[in-house]
């Protein structure tokens, strides 16, 4: 292969060009947002209306780069209950709380040691003693505090009936309900920076990282308490149940997002190397500690603070940087020392760690070895994502020129396909939100709507618009079946207030007691269609070069529903565009319960028939789990493509407007092409096309 210097340079150039800033959210971002919203309002306490406040943490929140290979394994979500919080020992109880908290809350004091518990102090691990009950005053929104008797400590496990925390510290969900593993961590919120890390904000920093603004932001976010005991205390009868770990996940998100792109790329490279080489699996099963991703994160945080900017940027060589950091990690492992980044005198390694073999592996790594390793195990894997002609280039890369040519082809392909992840995110959102909403509707109110829109807007504001449309369709269906209510009107007001600038006239009409149910339904449906149309237009702006789809499908559908067939026909003139699209990724419209009201009786009947004939589809749609894995490809039976819908509406309008037989005959060619464009498993599309074909033949034969 090429010499060491050339290979290091090629690897560096490749990673800098392919780990670009993301132009769009990913499907992982969408699933994390949906799960956070579901977690916040999926399991309310009916008696006390206690809610949980979720936060996406870990790699999902920390990385802003977009490598070609996955840099996110699990989706990590922390959550805290809105009726409890922690304060440092000796601090007075707060008189005001953020709006997310309940009107009453239990306050726990963070303490390092408990009397009569021998050797109970481990840096970074604490206990929570119940100290106050806060109750909000209705007059001034301040909180009054009532003091508890001392000696009551919060347990960190779910099977203790005495205390206050629900669920295990970590609950991992896998399988058909999620596309990716999700780690859910319960915590207690602390709004103050803990005294255990008091030295961190003020210690001397020679190279200006983090800067003062970042420091202030980190400190103002406080910390969290996670219900897990120190490894040496887990078997202890009392400490194992009542010990908590200080968590700085919020601080880490802020700090890692403040890194230069090169630092995030190095962090990604180190994680990928350690994981691929299975260096976290080198310990035996005797209970000894193992090398973890948190040790890599700590290594990077210290390097970011202790290394000058020039060390990262001058004569940039990503492989060299990684080698130096891996050698530093080797020294840490050899000396059994990994200083906690935030807490002084806290060592993340101890004698129980069986990492001698890892240390010997890391110290032997040099630039030549690591360069070739990344060519084979990283760039080679990236090539597998590309067309076959690029894959073949890696069969023979004996010279620098051959390697450079192969790598440049990957980079070119990557840069010319920037929106594929965006398409996956859109596909998942359009599928999962309507499928999830029936579960969310069990607790749908003004607050939950706001939570859903907030979480989706974190990913992309356009998804919040789409969610709002689905909610409005649901409200219209509820009004049609059971009439209006103040609760429904409040939900509509919340949705319109978030997404429209001219909602006042609509809200005035909705609250006008003179309107009957059908008039209310029409107004809400129209607002829903306006949101859907806006969403289509916004998405088309970015995705038009990736997926061929039209922006007038919902306008055509609404015009047809109102009997304006001439206008509907104008909106369906884009059938040619869909029929002969260069990329056959057909956009779809869900035919779930809230969307079905937009369609005519024939489509409704075909959908019902499909659900009856295919029990599997019926089970998916009624499942209360998040069915993102089932809907992410739009191959479910409860979807109709834009092409099929446009053909259906066009021909129905031609029939109703009594168009000449010759114009109808031309549509038979369109139907034949559409049959080919839709795979067999898209049963509803195939049935609809057969219905169109039958209607045309029936008219022609008269």
Q: What report would you give on this structure?
A:
Among the domains are: 74-258, no CATH class; 548-702, no CATH class. Mean pLDDT is 82; it is low at 158-177, 283-287 and 619-637. The strands form two sheets. A six-stranded mixed barrel has the order 2-3-4-9-8-7. The chain has a two-stranded antiparallel ribbon with strand order 10-11. With 702 residues, it is α+β, with helices and mostly antiparallel strands. It is built from 29 helices and eleven strands. It has helices at residues 4-18, 27-41, 58-62, 212-220, 239-242, 249-257, 261-276, 293-306, 309-313, 318-335, 356-363, 367-383, 388-393, 400-415, 420-440, 446-459, 461-482, 486-499, 503-510, 517-543, 553-561, 565-571, 575-579, 601-613, 615-622, 628-631, 642-656, 661-677, 683-700; strands spanning 52-57, 75-88, 104-111, 125-136, 143-147, 170-173, 182-190, 223-226, 244-247, 588-590, 639-641. α2 runs parallel beside α15 (420-440). A hairpin with an 8-residue loop joins β6 and β7 (182-190).
Quick overview:
With 702 residues, the chain is an alpha+beta fold.
Largest sheet: 6 strands, mixed, barrel
Instruction: Give the total of beta strands.
Output: 11
Continuous helix count? 29
Could you list the spans in which at least 5 consecutive residues all have pLDDT below 50?
A: 158-177, 283-287, 619-637
Note the main attributes of this structure.
alpha+beta; 29 helices; flat; two-stranded antiparallel ribbon; 51% helix
